[in-house]
Design goal:
11-stranded antiparallel sheet
Length: about 240
């Protein structure tokens, strides 16, 4: 073995280690997210709404850092149309979207926007409240207003200037900034979970309530858990 061989071997090993690091880093960007059911239950019980409201959110089994762009929220009005035992009855629930807000990882408040297919309306105008009649469930997709952009404003892959699709609104960024996740060393090393919140504003209208409805606020806590990098390998199902 001549003097050059150890240098070549060392360089070869370092290259292998570097490429292995790149492979691990490429797969090290997935997390799970869930609604904190106990926290939500406490919120409802504190305001005496546990027999009236039920809130749930549908999630995929796991997400890459840049793939969570909206939430699918279901809100049920458990009241009945007629009085039965001690069950709430004749109560309608209104969701006032303009009074709802996301709170991101930095505690910044963000306006909630209800998503509708083909939306072309001005994002700054007031949003219509959603009504949930007794014994019905409302299902909506929501996101933060600052993630939305008109298709005609895209810098890349622009549409024809005359296309009506230019006015349609689309989500252009993830709900949680991937850069903020990667900068959080404890989260990346799976030492801690991260939390963000959704504040929902409701008006309760019915017997024993004011004519315009009594407004209540419910805070939903979402917990993000970083997965081990091996979860991102191709043979692990989504």
């Amino acid at each position: 073995m001549n003097l050059v061989d150890p240098i070549i071997l060392t360089a070869y090993v370092l290259c292998i280690i570097y490429f292995l690091y790149l492979i691990v880093d490429a797969f090290n960007d997935e997390f799970t997210i869930k609604l904190d059911a106990d926290f939500l239950k406490q919120q409802l019980e504190e305001q005496g709404l546990q027999n009236l409201l039920a809130v749930s959110v549908k999630f995929d089994s796991r997400y890459e850092f840049d793939k969570l762009k909206q939430l699918s929220v279901s809100i049920s009005n458990k009241a009945s149309h007629e009085k039965v035992d001690d069950k709430p009855y004749g109560i309608s629930v209104y969701v006032d979207w303009d009074y709802c807000a996301f709170t991101d990882l930095d505690g910044r408040s963000r306006r909630v926007t209800r998503l509708m297919p083909g939306t072309t309306v001005d994002l700054f105008q007031n949003q219509v409240s959603s009504t949930i009649a007794p014994s019905t469930t409302l299902k909506e997709a929501i996101t933060a207003e600052d993630l939305l952009q008109r298709k005609g404003d895209r810098k890349a892959d622009k549409l024809d200037a005359a296309s009506p699709l230019n006015l349609e609104v689309e989500i252009t960024k993830p709900l949680i900034d991937p850069g903020a996740l990667k900068k959080n060393d404890k989260f990346m090393k799976r030492y801690t979970d991260l939390e963000f919140f959704l504040g929902l504003a409701f008006r309760i209208v019915g017997p024993n309530h004011s004519i315009g409805g009594d407004r209540v606020y419910i805070l939903c806590k979402f917990v993000m858990h970083k997965l081990h990098w091996t979860a991102g390998l191709p043979w692990n199902p989504k």
